[in-house]
Amino acid sequence: MSQYFRQDFFRVPDGASLFYEVRGDPGATPVVLCDGLGCDGFVWKYLWPVLTARRQVMHWHYRGHGVSGVPDDPTRIGVDVSCDDLVRLMDHAKLESAVLFGHSMGTQIALEFHRRYPSRVKGLALVCGSFGTPLDTWHDHTLLRVAFPTALKIVERFPGVARAILGNVMGTEIALTVAINGELNPDLIARADFAPYMKHLQKMDPVMFVRTLDSLKDHSALDHLPNVNVPTLVVGGQIDKFTPVWLAQRTAELIPGAEYLFVPGGSHTAPLERPGMVNHAIDRFLRERIDQPLKRVG
Q1: What is the 3-state secondary structure (H, E, C) of the chain?
Q2: Is residue 86 part of a domain?
Q3: Which of 71, 101, 142, 268 would be 16's cystine partner, CB 3.0–4.6 Å?
């Protein structure tokens, strides 16, 4: 099987320069990886070999994330804009359609993308995410919804201070320890697997972070779930605090024919905590629900 690898940038009309990479079998069904908020791909670490062995995989960075740039108008951030970016990027990469993978915020983007461009989606793999309004369910309470407007104002008024705090704190061993013990499963996650997320937050512009989160807080694809008409796999982590597992269960219940994978002990980074279980389920889902129907049709 021939393997392909490319990394490049694509400039969209409003000036943002989007980073993307394509790996794997160029003749196979494409997969597109959509990250979570403040992420640049760390969660897919153990999935890359599984996915590229059988198909073509494109991963990209949202505007203001990773090494992607920002638009001429820095307020053009969020779910709707990300869907516009992705369809342009797929056109540029000559991907007529793809299986969309979404982790965390990427779940919202994948669902909204399907709502807007259903013919471009062959399937969905929704990992540790919510269908919408994540500030209402973080840690299973609405505290973040109440506190966020103040945090948004502070960051936008004092961006230099916010950058200094992120730069001096997020990359430290203490911050890594607190994050792992407070939000993840310290018995399952390797420090080296989560450290890249903290390093990325350390370098990310906090204004881009809060503006992206601001676009998420009122967005919901709940009404669209019954209209999802492609094979779907939903993955939920048992102790996920960012998007509690009942959100994954409800998503799977409302999408017709969706499969559901419950990850015991898994948190918001379940693909890194139980990679064998998650990889096996995803590989089987793609082979049986995506690849096999294509073969029967042909």
Answers
A1: CCCEEEEEEEECCCCCEEEEEEEECCCCCEEEEECCCCCCCHHHCCCHHHHHCCCEEEEECCCCCCCCCCCCCCCCCCHHHHHHHHHHHHHHCCCCCEEEEEECHHHHHHHHHHHHCHHHEEEEEEECCCCECHHHCHHHCCHHHHHHHHHHHHHHHCHHHHHHHHHHHCCCHHHHHHHHHHHCCCCCCCHHHHHHHHHHHHHCCHHHHHHHHHHHCCCECHHHHHHCCCCEEEEEECCCCCCCHHHHHHHHHHCCCCEEEEECCCCCCHHHHCHHHHHHHHHHHHHHHHHHHHHHHC
A2: yes
A3: 71
Would 68 be classed as within a structural domain? yes
* CA–CA distance, 31 with 52 (Å, rounded to integer): 9
pLDDT of 297 > 80? The answer is no
The CATH number of whichever domain residue 31 belongs to comes to 3.40.50.1820
Q: What is the mean pLDDT of residues 134-151?
A: 94
Answer for the pair 241, 138: CB distance below 8 angstroms, yes or no: yes
Tokens of 145: 């919804």
Of 106, 136, 110, which Cα lies nearest the Cα of 268?
Answer: 106
**Residue 16 to residues 48, 70, 71, 75, Cα–Cα distance (Å):** 26, 5, 4, 12
Residue 91 near residue 39, CB atoms below 8 Å: no
Report the number of distinct structural domains present in the chain.
1
pLDDT class of 295 with cuts at 50, 70, 90 = very low
Domain containing 86: what range? Answer: 4-141+219-297
pLDDT classification of 293: cutoffs 50, 70, 90: low
